[in-house]
Amino acid sequence: MIYMSVSNKTFHTAGLWFLGFGHKFIKYPRVVQTLEFTPGRRGRLHTRTADGLPLTLGVSFQYRYLDNRLYELYLNFKGEHEPVYVATAAAVIANEACLHQAYAFFNDKQGIALNMTARLNTKFEESLFAHIEALQITEVELPSIFQDAIVKSISTKQEITRSMRYKENMKVTFETDVMVARQMKEQTVAISKGTARSRAELAAANTQITQQTVSAEMDAFFNVSSSLQLSPTDALDYLWWDLLKDDYADAKEFLIGVNPAAYIRAEAHAPSAAAAPADAPHVGCMRVLPACRSRGRRFDPLPRVGSVGVSPRECNAAARPSPSAASRPSEGLGAMQ
């Protein structure tokens, strides 16, 4: 007599096993299985959202049989478990989709997929002896009017987000520019203060040098005056001749007895003396504008020549020193080469 019986022992590894006469293996795949609801396979799922809009979903998920519960799986379904899997998955996914607003299928599709995975896994492990590995929502179809509005709102939100990011970037840029401007201002102020301080110190140093130079010259002049027993008038004569000596190195000629500070200018040229009459105005004489002074005495300036018709005799007579002045070399007036 032959009895139909099934052993509850599960074989997990490959190899040679002795089964005996009339026995066979009931095989289940160990790899992950995929179940799809797509237009090409079983069709898409039709349901509604929480706000009542019709919804069409394309879904696929992957599952694996539980090794320790294969005996129960066979006893319950006798190998005809796939239709049960399809019907149960369709029901669970449709029920979960009814809990979400239509807008969520655009903004939080991944979150909805995670919730479907959790609910589907709970149902499969309890009743269908399998474990859900992952679930993907491949297609979402809503009414065209709502879908267009959703797409437009999503685009608007993206534009708002992009504008906000641009605003933040420009804010950082402007803050950086302000920081740079402040640093440049501080740098400019520091450089200006340093330049002003250096110029002030240079001016103070020049002032100190001038004061020390003048003081030294005054002390030297006082020492010379004391050593030589010079009166103030003699000291002024000494300074005068010293100035004439210094100017002689750069000048071709100078006038003896004329204050070096006097303003002297040449008159305009006229025709040569050879072609001019004897009484023609003398050309080439110099005119001293201020009066000449020496030792407190006053000399009359030279007559103006070349433009007022002064004759050469008058020019020579005016330039010739008086007998009393000739006895004092410092009071004479003449030209020296």
Account of the 3D structure:
The chain is of the alpha+beta class and 337 residues long. Helices cover 48% and strands 15% of the residues. Strands 1, 2, 3 and 4 form a four-stranded antiparallel β-sheet that branches. The model is unreliable at 267-337 (pLDDT under 50).
List keywords for this structure.
10 strands, two-stranded antiparallel sheet, 337 residues, four-stranded antiparallel sheet, single chain, alpha+beta, 8 helices
List the helices and strands and how they pair.
Blueprint: E1 33-37, E2 45-48, E3 54-65, H1 70-77, H2 82-97, H3 104-107, H4 109-128, E4 130-141, H5 144-228, H6 232-248, E5 254-256, E6 264-266, E7 286-288, E8 292-294, E9 297-299, H7 312-319, H8 323-326, E10 334-336
Antiparallel strand pairs: 1-3, 2-3, 3-4, 5-10, 6-7, 8-9
Helix pairs in contact: 2-4
Any low-confidence stretches, pLDDT <50, length ≥5? 267-337
Number of strands: 10
What about the largest sheet?
Answer: 4 strands, antiparallel
Q: What structural category characterises the helix and strand content?
A: alpha+beta
Average residue pLDDT:
77
Number of contiguous helices: 8
Helix content range of the residues, please? 40-55%
Shape: rod-shaped
| Approximate strand percentage | 15-25%
The end-to-end span amounts to 165 Å
The ordered string of helix (H) and strand (E) elements is EEEHHHHEHHEEEEEHHE
